[in-house]
Amino acid sequence: MDIVFIRQLQLEAVIGIHDWEREKPQLLLLDLDLATDAGRAAASERIQDALDYHAVSRRLTEYVAESEFQLLETLAEHCAGLLMREFRVSWLRLTLHKPQAVDNASSVGVIIERGSRNQ
After folding, report:
1. Less crowded by CB within 10 Å, the N or C end of the chain?
2. How does DSSP assign 35-47, residue by residue?
3. Is the pLDDT reported for residue 116 higher than 90?
4. Model's pTM, two decimal places?
5. Using one digit for the tens of pLDDT, what is the confidence trace for 22-78?
6. Catalytic: 24?
7. Cα distance from N-terminal residue to C-terminal residue, the chain
């Protein structure tokens, strides 16, 4: 298994349980590890044979901007499902950071893994 990764993808979303969090979008940061077979793309040099990280980033940015979940866990779960369905990812690790959530911490968040690494 090979991995395509994306680090610190900047997203904006209305997210949170407090009224003040629902007033305007907040900055979120997303890290992804996505299972893929890089050998096929390496042999062909065709983007059609690769897991297109630009397309993944663009789709997640659009999806998250339109979302209005209360919990990071819910947003993370929905993003994982979207990636597995639309990009046919068999396994992923997704880390979602909410940098401004706690005054005396650089970031808080959630890490989830979905799928099987052995496919």
Report:
1. C
2. EE-HHHHHHH--G
3. no
4. 0.91
5. 889 999 999 999 999 999 999 999 999 999 999 999 999 999 999 999 999 999 999
6. no
7. 8
Residues in the chain, overall count = 119
- Find out whether 89 and 119 touch, Cβ atoms under 8 Å: no
What tokens were used for 40?
């096929």
Which of 94, 93, 92, 90 is CA-nearest to residue 119?
Answer: 90
The amino acid that residue 31 corresponds to is D
The answer to whether the CB of 91 falls within 8 A of the CB of 116 is yes
Q: Which of 52, 98, 102, 105 is catalytic?
A: 98
Q: Report the pLDDT averaged over residues 68-97.
A: 96
Closest to 32 in 3D by CA, of 52, 63, 7, 2: 7
